Amino acid sequence: MPEIHPVSHVIFDFDGLLVDTETCYTEALARMLKPFDRVFTMEKKAAMMGMKMQDAVEWLISHEGIGERVTTQEFMKDYIVHLDELLRHGPLKEGAERLVKHLDKHIVAVVKHNIPMAICTGSNTKEYEQKSASHRELWALIPLIVLTGDDPHVKNGKPAPDGYIETMKRFPSPPSSARDVLVLEDAPNGVKSGLAAGCQVVQVPTGPEACFRMGADIDAKITVLSTLADFDPTVFGLPAYD
């Protein structure tokens, strides 16, 4: 079990944690393979994790043996069209709306429970605009958004700690210590980033991330939940749900 103490600030990842973008990526690739009589599986998705888009598409085309029927560029062009459509309607993850609104309520209403919130995501500005098109009223409750994909002040993406360190600096009232910050993540690289920044970390793994652990040394430092709906704010010294 990790060493847990009360937190003063909360930072959310976005993709796969608050919004179910993983379903969007899976559906877009499933649509692309259907005309070739192929099925997109979680095993294939796991093999593509962490690759740049072009590398992942090249791997998939080769793996499926469809290179004589479609080029990488043709596949990517149609894939992006499907993905754009799906991302604009990405559903919220279970428990996300309840937690964000709960923390926002206590920021506004209870001075002693002032809980600054932020999002730190690997998306760039264009990608975030697509993914956040739905539920804008919910994202408006989170005043600080750091888009490490094209933020000039963030040199290295996750698993480097740069994004979370920069996010902590940008809080109007920065935390006294990184240990006073709770990071909520889904992906292994995000977990490693939060830990490297010195924060406490809760992981809610989804998709292929749920199929494997990161090793006993990392698992011992984090709290792992099946869904955000299982998150108990009081464990980290935050006000209880009503």
TrEMBL record:
GO terms for molecular function: phosphatase activity. This is Hydrolase. InterPro entries: HAD-like_sf, HAD_2, HAD_sf, PGP-like_dom2. Pfam families: HAD_2. It comes from Pristionchus pacificus.
